[in-house]
Amino acid sequence: MEVTFRNEAKIKVLAQIFAGRTLVSTCVAGPGETQLLRAESAPYDIFFKNGATGWELTRKLNSGAKNVTLRQQAGRFILIGG
Fold first, then answer.
1. pLDDT tops 90 at residue 44
2. d(CA 61, CA 47)
3. Are 79 and 56 in contact (CB under 8 A)?
4. Residues 26-39: what's their mean pLDDT?
5. Non-local CB neighbours of 21 within 8 Å, separated by 6+ positions
6. CA–CA separation, 42 vs 56, rounded Å?
C-alpha cells in the first residue's frame, strides 16, 4: 500500500509511518513537494516532524488514508485526509 504525502507547509517536513512500534517508511518533503510512503497495511500510525529540529508537528494514529496533506495555517499544522 502506498500513501501519497503532500507538504503544503512552509517548512521541510519529515514523515514517518509506523506499524506498531516498527518504523516502516520515512521521507523528507520540502514545501510544495509530494512524496510516496510505503505502508505495510492499514491501519498505520503516521507522524510529521520538523525536518530541521525533529520536533513533532502532528500525528494521526490508526489511519487508513491513501492521501495525506499537511497544511500550515495561522501558526498551526493541519492534517487533511488522515
1. yes
2. 8
3. no
4. 96
5. none
6. 22
